[in-house]
Amino acid sequence: MSEVWVELNAPRFVVHRHSAKLRCEHNVDPESLYKVVFFKNGQRIMKFVRGRDPPFELYNVTGADISLMNLSPTSITLDRLDFSASGPYACEIALETPLYSKVSKIHELNVIVRQKFRPKIKIKHKKLSSSDQLEATCQSAPAHPAPHLTWFINNNK
Q1: Are residues 129 and 102 part of one domain?
Q2: pTM summary value
Q3: pLDDT, tens digit (0-9, with 9 covering 90-100), for 55-67
Q4: What phi, psi does 84 have (nearest 5°)?
């Protein structure tokens, strides 16, 4: 048997209340695949075992619902993601013969809220001489996580 690889394919950023599809990709022949498990924060969220009735076991996912319509042995869709659904995800595949399992690397998923408009700069005094001090404020739209604002004057930080 060649070197087995497994990788969790999922978006890095998901807009609040939207959905995310997580796919456990691997190079194992589907007939040899015995078990697939998805994890969030090291806790099971879905387990598929070939030959069991029912083949799927679903667990609670804080901040999301698992879509039953989009469930497959190697993929799950998380619906209506809330901020608490952010965190580390992984998947594991297992073979029955030979007895073997492998876990993917951790994939960080972040639930976000995009800014609705660009940052706005307000300048207190519009006309200044070169010796005057500039007084200005920069305000960004609400977003999650909060935007990091950096001032640039003549392309200098």
Answers
A1: no
A2: 0.85
A3: 999 999 999 999 9
A4: -70, -10
